[in-house]
């Protein structure tokens, strides 16, 4: 067996199941689960119809690179969304379809990390983080270095605290903007600083942008890494790879459809890796994805639904505790009055409401666990369930 398997941590939801073990919640309260970021808004009908209309494609082996129509649709969406000239994005060399960001974020590290380097490589990532980053780094044979995100830093990674000795060993940097779990958004200036560091120390930036289309202010969409690179004059997107998905944007997590885009030299080698990995996107999924990337109306409506839930949830809960709406994502990153694990356990026991302890999403680093005394609440349930959840948390806090 791969010896690095022994270094993997249990997944957050495995820990959550153990935390809830032995508790019988009240039977008079229907269960509400807000622990997992699984969108529950309906998948648009036109995506489902396109999937069915091309079902004959199930009889054909798909290619790893995907059909040109899909890559062209993605390139055009990127250009429109991030104010990049469409001519600067070659659908043949700058875009590669993937089966959702999860598998791509993991497999990318297996491709780009050189574990045979004279000095053991480091993969840098925010803390808290999407646990795929950590698992990908460990199984690629690298050390991990966590960059804490705290209230003092606006829940953004404190990259200024990373010593040069770490940057010198860094081969890959994961960033996530909008962030999971806080919804904090990196500025273009912050991304420029990272791109300069990548140039200086020769590492790759993998930008997880799967929450990029869930933002509060229609006039201020989150900036993307390719957008920042192009604005800096890095028109070839050197050392930049972005990861996008239809899961959150189009409420289609089961479609398993996304893409990576950026540095053509990196993607050429990642494409070669993927031809062996064997994860080509089925043709019906590709055709449904084309329709999804070409339509913005459903995405605008999706944001409206989340705004309604944030407004209602925060209006109720703010009567009992401080709570803020993030600039993006569908998460509330709530501070707890005592241990986050005990808060989540008691909330389930008293209110039959499941949230995720923040410490399950982070590691203790430099003397602190930045996820401690927080819980992540995913406002993915219908509006009425989110309203009920706010009342239940309010009642729970009032009892305390």
UniProtKB/TrEMBL annotation:
UniProt cross-references to CDD domains, sorted A to Z: AAT_like
Keyword terms of this UniProt record: Aminotransferase, Transferase
Name of the featured protein: Succinyldiaminopimelate transaminase
GO molecular function: pyridoxal phosphate binding; succinyldiaminopimelate transaminase activity
Key word Transferase present: yes
Organism listed in the record: Methylovulum psychrotolerans
Aminotransferase class I/classII large domain residues: 32-378
Gene Ontology BP terms: lysine biosynthetic process via diaminopimelate
Transmembrane segments: none
Necessary cofactors: pyridoxal 5'-phosphate
Keyword Transferase assigned: yes
